[in-house]
């Protein structure tokens, strides 16, 4: 019994020393232009998916179909997300092509859509991925506006998306906004976008397509 324990202890020490040597001698290439091997990629992706899923289980999803929520979310998405996650009708960007891991294309009709997981990811971010923790500067209600937009994004045409952005409150989330390269203008004297004209509100609602979800989970826009 003592011999077995000694053998296990020596094996554990050897593994720790081997791991330390791998780190110290720079065996692992952390360059973003060198993809992970298949097994490492699968391990990291599974760890990410399970981490988000477990933490999102208790999140209660509010009603996300309101046109005002979607319209408001469009302004922040254009300012804060589009460079990495793209917009309807837009091609890839330098960021979307060169980040590692590659950010998901949120306009993809085949992507997984889980509002609770999207909320958690936007709020808390993903370490070592380039995904910020927007919850540090955004209240939950503004994050839900982004989630509402994401629910509709794959079904929007480029024209519908641009109309939503044009009639939104721009880059706004209650204060602390900084200049972003793709930012739509912030509404003057009102970070909450309450001073849009009635005409603009009608344009925003008209821009939102009539969407229903099929039994197979796909969306159809009219």
Provide a brief overview of the structure:
The protein has 222 residues and is an all-alpha fold. It is built from nine helices and two strands, in the order H-H-H-H-H-H-H-H-H-E-E.
Protein architecture, described:
The structure is a single chain. This protein has nine helices and two strands; from the N terminus they run αααααααααββ. The protein has 222 residues and is mostly helical. It has a domain of 109 residues: Cytochrome Bc1 Complex, Chain D, domain 2. A two-stranded antiparallel ribbon has the order 1-2. α3 crosses α8, α6 crosses α7 and α8 packs antiparallel against α9. The radius of gyration is 22 Å and the shape is elongated.
Layout of strands and helices, then pairs:
Elements: H1 2-24, H2 38-56, H3 67-80, H4 82-85, H5 94-98, H6 115-124, H7 140-152, H8 158-166, H9 198-207, E1 211-213, E2 219-221
Antiparallel strand pairs: 1-2
Q: How are the strands of the biggest sheet laid out side by side?
A: 1-2
Q: Beta-sheet strand percentage?
A: under 5%
| Count of helical regions | 9
Helix share bin:
40-55%
Domain Cytochrome c: 68-154
GO molecular function: electron transfer activity; heme binding; metal ion binding
Pfam family, one: Cytochrome_CBB3
Protein name: Cytochrome C oxidase, cbb3-type, subunit III
Keywords:
2 strands; 48% helix; two-stranded antiparallel sheet; 222 residues; mainly alpha; single chain; 9 helices; Cytochrome C oxidase, cbb3-type, subunit III; Cytochrome Bc1 Complex, Chain D, domain 2
């Amino acid at each position: 019994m003592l011999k077995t324990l000694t053998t296990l202890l020596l094996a554990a020490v050897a593994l720790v020393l081997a791991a330390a040597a791998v780190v110290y001698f720079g065996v692992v290439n952390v360059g973003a232009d060198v993809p992970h091997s298949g097994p490492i990629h699968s391990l990291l992706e599974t760890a990410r998916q399970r981490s988000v899923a477990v933490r999102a289980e208790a999140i209660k999803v509010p009603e996300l179909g309101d046109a005002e929520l979607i319209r408001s979310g469009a302004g922040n998405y254009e300012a804060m997300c589009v460079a990495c996650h793209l917009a309807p009708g837009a091609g890839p960007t330098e960021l979307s092509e060169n980040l590692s891991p590659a950010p998901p294309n949120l306009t993809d009709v085949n992507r997984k859509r889980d509002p609770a997981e999207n909320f958690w990811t936007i709020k808390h971010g993903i370490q070592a991925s380039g995904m910020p923790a927007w919850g540090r500067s955004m209240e939950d209600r503004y994050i839900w506006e982004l989630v509402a937009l994401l629910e509709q994004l794959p079904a929007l045409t480029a024209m519908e998306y641009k109309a939503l952005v044009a009639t939104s409150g721009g880059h706004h989330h209650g204060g602390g906004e900084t200049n972003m390269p793709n930012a739509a203008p912030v509404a003057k004297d009102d970070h909450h976008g309450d001073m849009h004209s009635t005409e603009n509100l009608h344009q925003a609602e008209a821009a939102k397509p009539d969407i229903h979800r099929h039994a197979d989970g796909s969306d159809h826009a009219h």
